[in-house]
Protein 1
Amino acid sequence: MSLLEDELEGHPLAGEEESDEPALRSPARLTAFRRGFGGFLVPVLTTLIAFLAGGLIVLATGHNPLSTYTSIFDGTGLNWLFPWVSGADRATAAGNLQQTLIQATPLILVGLAVAFAFRAGMFNIGGQGQYTVGGIVAVWIGSSFAGMPPVLHVTFAIVAAGLAGAGWAGIAGVVKATTGANEVISTIMLNWIAIWLGVYCFQLGGPLQNPKMPSTPVSSNVVPGAKLPVFWGSAALQGLDVGIFISLALAIVFAVLIKRTRFGYEARTVGFNPEAARYGGINVGRTWIRVMLVCGAFAGVAASLDILGWKFSLFTNDIQASQVGFYGIAVALLGRNTAGGTVAAGVLFGALLTGTSDRNINLSIDPTLVQYLTFMLEGIIILLVSTDVITLRLLKGGRRIGVTLKRRPAKETGTSEGGAS
Amino acid sequence: MSVGVVTITPPRAVSAKQLGLAGIVLGAIAWVITLPPIEVRGMLPSIVLALVAVGFGAASAAAGERKLGSEAIVVALLALAGAAASAKSSAATVESVFTWSALAAATLRYATPLLFGALGGVISESGGVINVGLEGMMLMGCFWGVYGSDLLGWWGWGLLVAMISGGLLALVHGIFSIHLRANQIVSGMGINFLALGITGYFLEYHYGPNGTPLNISTVPNVNLPLIQHVGFFGSAIGDANLMTWVGLALVPALTFFLFRMRWGLRLRSIGEKPRAADSVGLPVLRIRYVAVVASGMLAALGGAYLSVGFVGSFSNDMTNGRGFIALAAMIFGKWRPWGALWACLLFGFGNAMSDRVSSVNPTLGTLFEALPYVLTLVAVAGLVGRSRPPASDGIPYVRE
């Protein structure tokens, strides 16, 4: 039995298991490269390649890639950063940029929730469920306790949502630590349970459904005192709320936690090799549980910022259609599971979402096409992120790199990389 | 020599394991007796049975079978909740929900797409390539199946086009995970996004806002005239879709292939110890490619069942997470075809149940939607425990 269990620890769903040959992928060299300039350049290059490939698809289906991309870019509001954009354009750009950052706020946090698990060698597909549970709690607290002082009320709602998310993710952690059940399967199950729980709460006749709107499956509205203050733009036009700062602050917390605390060290050690960690005296099961708790807290807070910042209520449709957990995985992967990378990737994905939403696309292009083009771009980005080989090769001008390509026999190269380089 | 501590295990008539299993069975019975055809009205018999089951579970847990014992207790409590629900509803309601034959037919309907996906996963992971991209491959089959059926006029061509599309997407996954040695989970997630983009883009590009045409050729149902009027079986399987039968037939076929046939054993050896397989001259990478592409084709068939086989149209993101459920079913089924089948039937049954319950009581129906996932979670944590994937699953192979 113990032999069997030992083998399981190394299962790649539980950790990023490399090949058993030490020289094949020297983690030290790869890490050194990532820490250096390459850590910045590779993701940027990856994104550029993806846009290039996407442009080809646009071209092949008879549209102009340049005008498509320009229109997406203007839709993101990032043109606000250009000093020459002025007047009405500037006002529109500001509004769009506010939306981009509003979208980025939860994406960063859910990205962190996935990234933290990855660092500890776990695959948290459960961001969606943790986000959903956090949202249910946030909207419940935000819409009750009407007389509470605003600061207290907001804090209460955010903390409670974080705890709810943590508890939800904690289930997967406890189950993994005590019975060895694979967290991939348990977090997927918890996603669906959370979604149906949410639908149950707010559906017609549900326990938390808005009593003032008996024919709409929606929660009650968040009371004014529990709303996050808007600091850029007008609150009536869904300006940017302070949630983005909470999101950024938690990214810093993430970095400190991972790099500067004993817990972070233990988590990384477990992620690197659970057997070695156990041998080194780390309680692996407890680390798994704690990591999941932290992950869930990030995702739960993400939901509360959405609810208290701009949604103010939760529709059952919204719960079922939300894709934020799915995006969170992409954000974490593109951000290479680091705090800074996840923030950057969160803003990029927030920008893509805003830039391709119906209202921001000018009418010369079919907005639906552009939305799905974005999914393709994201897919290509993630595929390229999954392997460093292609971008590394481009960077080094086609020369062989010691890190990943060293031991590759001649007959295996060429076919698959020829197209890329 | 020191004697140390001597543990004395008294001889038992029943082992802890048997006790735990008995607890589970009794717990289940506590609920089943309130359903047709027995339909015990009133809670008392169920309470008694459930209490006995809890006692067995506790005894089993105390005797060392902690997982199994707690499992029995959970089952007994769930059964008690079920029995309470039956007792609260009228007899007519219970009968309309638990029309077993209709439930069985619906279970098969819901399980079919999952089964294709899960079997695809089994093939790919037996060869050592993790396939998180099942969702995307299913989605490809879902759309391109409709496209093919619409363009070429016959559902068979539609299925073929679906398989080609799924195979091509799987080939991309293969190139990344086999040759480029990508992190296979990451690559699989990329595949999912790519498929979502491709299907949505080309749905809009080919069909515009009106969506796919209404009258495409769909996969027929198989009429079994012999048993069509034989009560339960007649309604349950007398008129099942052709693809359901194909899926069911694939389970023993794939089991035979993986465990009895030369190439299946070779595939599994590559999933376990690729170095050893290589040393006896097997083309490891090529076989992995074949397995991944076959996996994509199967998953695509599952997706095509949803569109070409069932609804006759395609809508964006139509698979709606079924690929992930298929993945869960594969893990739940311990990377084996039969295990995957049981897991898919469990999910299918849960969906079918919630449909029936929803028609009587929408509020309760919503909670029942979550039931299969709760059961899976409980089962994965308790009964199944650590399931063992192929030893080299997810590890790229590099020749010496």
Note: The CA atoms of residues 127 and 271 of chain B lie 4 Å apart.
Protein 2
Amino acid sequence: MRKSPILAVRGLRASVAETGVEILRGVDLEIRAGEIHAIMGPNGSGKSTLAKVIAGHPGYEADGGHVRLRGEDLLGLEPDERAQAGVFMAFQYPVEIPGVSIANFLRSALQARLEDGEELDLFDFQDLLSGCMELLGMDPSFAQRAVNDGLSGGEKKRNEILQMAVLKPALAVMDETDSGLDIDALKVVAAGVNALREENPEMSVLLITHYQRILDHIQPDMVHVMVNGRIVESGGPEVALELEAQGYEEYKRTHAA
Amino acid sequence: MSGGIAVGGGARVAEVGEVAAVGRGGEPSWLRARRDDAWELYEATPFPSTRSEEWRYTDIERLLPLGDLERSAIGPNWSGELPERLRRVLASDGEGAGRVVEMDGRVVSARLDPGVAAAGVALSSLADAACSADPVVRELLGTQAVPASDGKFPALNAALWSDGVFVHVPPGVKVELPIRLSRWVSRPEAPTFTRVLIVAEERSNIAFEDEILSPDFESGTLVSTAVEIFARRGARVRYVSLQRMGRRGCHLANQRTVAERDSSVDTLNVALGGSVDRVDLNARLVGPGASSEMLGLYFGEDGQHFDFNTSQDHMAPHAHSDLLYKGALDGRARGIFRGIIRVHEGAQRTDAYQTNRNLLLSDHAVATSLPNLEIEADDVRCSHGATVGQLDSEAIFYLMSRGLERGQAERLVVRGFLGEVLSRLGPGVVADKVMRTIEAKLVR
């Protein structure tokens, strides 16, 4: 029996808010519970824009179509409401927040999910946080560091995975998490994602990447190729391997704007 | 209005002196003479105008309706209960080495921990100390650190000060807990002039927390404070000024710290309340190996106007000073920072830094930052930097994407921004109080 989709994207069109330049030209995508989907594409194909539009980045305007999470339309929601609904985006460039510790930040994020008047139990939070850090093989002192401020590229990406572990989203959108990482750092991050998936097999993942190599470490159920703001091919893991062999040139020729 | 505060002429000064000396057997003649000289200087000094570089962004004549201030500089002795807000602050401040309460410019109580007193530390009303002919007071009150010749307001303060605090720490005595001064100002349209004199003898330690509180006022109310701090060889002094006045309160502070060989004088100026706060702070490093950390934190909203005029005078070699002033400005608030590092001739191996950062939370808030260097030695390490930025929309989106509402996200960023200053200060009553006040401002 096929499960109903966690994420359903239909005919999604989106443009840059400031300039009105259209980036997404009708994207269709469905992800079911527990599935991992990879979106690959050349630079400028719109794959990162798709991630940002799902998360509600104010720099983009959705012009048509819909994005539903478990049936609920996300496009009218603020970014925080989308997070509450179960969306998590791991940023390609995690933002530095000086003076705010990772632990404090995560506590605020969990507190924000509670009803007014409800208080997050600090002991429960500590247990959750240290459990997640243990699962990801992180040193407990890491949580006392400022959010991304002074962290290396690899540490920033691990911080994203830690947040994902604590916030337990229904859908994790990973926006080029592999970019800028050497192979060792990439393996650490991929192992983190796999560990989370083992813990929480229902979590769906949308993995956005330029390169095939991360897919050696995180096995996708489906691979989509995006060119010029549309998904032009979808298939199993073999699609990524073909791409690796051929490159994007053929796709770019056939699907020119 | 060019005459400044409408407090009459010489006769008035005499009267002020008399009022200050009531019950103390009259003021000594040296003090009378200093007041007279100060008044003459006050009258001879032009009112600061925006044509002068140092007052360019603070039109004090416009911001502070001094002409409206009541003629009497000295209020009646405080009688009756302390105000509720002050009592709450006193109750929550916790343990200290000493506690002074000043009401409308008069010390109503000064208590020192018996153990600290037994070690020889003196804590008293400044007027009492002056009238009892304390030789240290006579030598240092308004003579070296903040003399009347410093300017219009130092002169006015020197002429009219009613009371304040004198702290004297004998050689080698280390006081662990801070001495706290809580000032309360209650009279609308009345000026208050007070002073602090701290003398830390060789190898002694002292921390002093100076808080100014008031209710909201309907019209401008002036508090002028002169703070003189001396750290003798190897002494350590920490001074915190925490301004949490109510609406329409105006604070003019003249602070000077003098750090001798191998001593340190660290200061923190916090401006959160009031309508106008102007702080002139001069850190003098007069002995080799002296050090000063100078921290500042301000959070303005509505039409609050904060102006910090700082200088770091390196007059001896191998001294170190490090200034960090950070402010957030919301509404139509205005923040001005003007700072200068002066490395005097012969002050080789000077290590001096100056940083001012501003975060604008509204399109109508304005920050002006003017860092400056003046170096007359050739072997020095100096740097200065200034930034004025707005809330980073990427940072807000990042935090919101984790489930924080926009307001919460903005608060977290501001807290983190200002928190850097408090983390340099270290945990304690001041950090808690400042954070609580900032939180209260942020949720408004």
Note: The first strand of chain B starts at residue 98 and ends at 103.
